């Protein structure tokens, strides 16, 4: 009887700890979002969304952050596209063309695990060295190089974990029908296609929210970038520079910029979940 009481006591303690952790994490999330909404909503206006910074914008005068919004979208979209084009073949090669459990497979996955956790400022420094070697100035292209290097490990490791969930029976059936490795790879990609959207979402979210990596490579401009060799503003950099100002008006705009960035990410999550649910139904 005492053993049963001890187990029940341990279960109650474990439930209390889990409940406490859930309350703290959820409360922190609502606190962060609430702070952004509370401080940013009064400064959010149509002018901020539709205009570029005018003279004196960073001392409280007229203008908006359209340049930073479009710069972030351009940078994140191009980087995610390149990371997907590069990362998917790498993952397919490691899971289809390389023997499972081989030293090359284990070493490659370990390497991408390490790259996954490398701080973005390190990628910024590496990309900056590449830019100096190639003679590229701080620009949208420099930011794309940085963020592509940053997001490739995200795509590779996320897709790799998804492929591990593919039933072995599916692989065996594909092989028994005489399919080539490339045909088997296409079957795997079709099976994990809904999850691939999640990998792309993770890469896009990391790309659009990074500040340390692009600080060295994109520069900053009040104009909307038209060419790849032009300096580019991003929302994280705009938030950083506005929060550095001692003027309350400019700091409020920083929170409004953070609110815009949060809304963009929320819309991406909603759209991706919707597309993933439709793809799951079609697969079934």
Describe the structure concisely:
The chain is mostly helical and 284 residues long.
Major β-sheet profile: none
Overall 3D geometry?
A: globular
Q: What is the helical fraction, as a range of percent?
A: over 70%
Structural class category: mainly alpha
N- and C-termini, Cα separation: 49 Å
Mean pLDDT: 82
The count of DSSP E runs of length 2 or more, i.e. the number of strands, is 0
Order of helices and strands: HHHHHHHHHHHH
Number of helical elements: 12
What proportion of the residues form beta strands (DSSP E)?
Answer: under 5%
Poorly predicted segments: none
Radius of gyration: 23 Å
Structure description:
- The chain has 284 residues and is mainly alpha-helical.
- The protein has helices at 2-40, 46-50, 66-97, 103-117, 120-134, 140-163, 168-176, 181-191, 193-209, 212-215, 235-243, 248-283.
- The protein is globular.
């Amino acid at each position: 009887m005492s053993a049963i009481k001890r187990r029940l006591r341990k279960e109650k303690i474990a439930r209390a700890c889990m409940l406490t952790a859930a309350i703290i994490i959820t409360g922190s999330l609502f606190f962060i979002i609430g702070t952004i909404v509370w401080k940013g909503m009064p400064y959010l206006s149509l002018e901020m969304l539709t205009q570029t910074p005018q003279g004196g914008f960073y001392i409280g005068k007229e203008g908006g952050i359209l340049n930073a919004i479009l710069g972030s979208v351009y940078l994140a979209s191009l980087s995610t596209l390149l990371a997907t084009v590069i990362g998917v073949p790498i993952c397919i090669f490691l899971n289809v063309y390389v023997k499972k459990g081989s030293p090359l497979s284990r070493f490659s996955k370990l390497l991408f695990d390490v790259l996954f956790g490398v701080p973005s400022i390190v990628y910024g420094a590496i990309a900056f060295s590449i830019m100096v070697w190639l003679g590229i100035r701080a620009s949208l292209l420099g930011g794309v190089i940085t963020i592509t290097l940053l997001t490739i490990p995200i795509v590779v490791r996320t897709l790799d974990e998804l492929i591990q969930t593919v039933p072995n029976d599916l692989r065996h059936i594909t092989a028994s029908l005489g399919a080539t490795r490339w045909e088997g790879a296409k079957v795997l990609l079709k099976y994990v296609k809904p999850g691939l959207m999640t990998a792309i979402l993770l890469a896009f979210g990391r790309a659009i929210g990074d500040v340390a990596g692009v600080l060295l490579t994109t520069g900053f401009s009040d104009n909307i970038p038209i060419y790849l060799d032009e300096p580019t503003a991003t929302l994280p950099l705009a938030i950083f520079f506005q929060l550095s100002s001692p003027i309350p008006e400019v700091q409020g705009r920083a929170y409004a910029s953070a609110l815009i960035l949060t809304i963009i990410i929320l819309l991406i999550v909603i759209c991706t979940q919707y597309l993933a649910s439709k793809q799951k139904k079609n697969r079934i």
